[in-house]
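User: Run a structure prediction on this.
Assistant: Running it now.
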Amino acid sequence: MSSTAMGSTPAKGLGLIGLEPLASPESVNHLLRAMFGGPYSVATDEQKTLMGISEGKVDTNALPIVRRFVGRADDRSYGMLYRDAINASALAHEEMKLAAKTGNRELAERTRTEYGPELQSYSDLSRTEFMLKKMRSRAKEIEARGDKEGADRIREQVVQRQREALGRYMKRVDSGK
């Protein structure tokens, strides 16, 4: 079908075949993403990247492999790393408790040697997590009262405190290994 039969633009063409609600470029993009999924997304992402390179502006977060090394992590990534740090320190702490309970000095020494930084971080991360749970609870209360902006500010503080605690943890791990 020629472009004149469909209309002068794809959006107008959609209107001619009874899809008037899809007449905006955003709607067309959404429809194409829904129809073609990953291949369409890859093609459009590559096009955006090439356009950015030609204009001298490249968002490293848009490049999957480059993002791994130079991109900025999003809040969810920090949250996952923070959760991993908490789990590692808690596991080391539990292993030390088991060694103390059973009187197994060999296990205690091996745990101290292998997980020294994690053991050192346990109390710091536990205190931080206790405080963050209170902050998250407060954010939920504030949001329930209708103050989404206030809740978002608290959530931003939670992420910042996670980053700070993760930074302290990583410093200990880097210096201990």
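DSSP finds eight helices and no strands in the chain.
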